[in-house]
Amino acid sequence: FAPTHAAPKKPATEQKPISPSPEIVEAFHRKLQESALDTEELIADHKFTPMSAAGAEKLGLSIHKAGFKIPYFSLDGKETGFFRFRYLEDTRTGITKQTDAKTQRYGQVAGTMNEAYFSPIISWEEVAKDAEYDLWITEGELKAACACSMGITCIGLGGVWNFKSTKRK
What pLDDT sits at residue 148? Predict the structure, then answer.
């Protein structure tokens, strides 16, 4: 027995666009310009990716606002899977929007442990083998990436308040 007509399809649910708006792309380039990282080569090398609020949601972030993904890399230059997200929109909601409370600028997936940020444009395996290299450490991936783009071996630490991990006590 074969049906004489196909079952009706459910209406397609409206997909929120993952691609960011032109205004967010412009804010992305402005932020990277402030950090001296605005060349297409540096953006591609670091795999910085601008995203819409729907993109932030798809990444599993608890705050769904537009921004850009900052992937982390191992000493051999491969992505580790860990990332942080730089928001380009005000993350405050409700009454906090009307206060002097600071907007959250960075986020990461809840429950993930922080990693050290190694810019992929430095040969970190070579640096790790040679104690003669000067090594700098700074707060923030963008500062570290900028320093590395200038030939300074610099590791970034994402956020000074991340020492308060309840997972690691």
Answer: 97
Q: What is the DSSP string of 71-136?
A: EEE-TTS-EEEEEEEEE-S----GGGGGSSPPPP-EE--TTPPP-EEE-TTS-HHHHHH-TTS--E
**CA 105 – CA 111 distance, rounded (Å):** 18
Number of residues written out for the chain:
169
| 3-state SS, residue 153 | coil
Give CA–CA dist 146/154, Å, rounded. Answer: 9
What residue type is 31 in one-letter code? K
Q: Which of 88, 98, 81 is nearest to 25 (CA)?
A: 88
Residue 55, classed as helix, strand or coil, is helix
86 Cβ neighbours under 8 A, 6+ residues apart: 31, 67, 68, 70, 105, 106, 142
Q: What is the mean pLDDT of each run of 10 residues along the chain (169 residues)?
A: 45 62 97 96 97 96 97 97 96 88 92 92 96 95 97 90 65
Whole-structure pTM value: 0.85
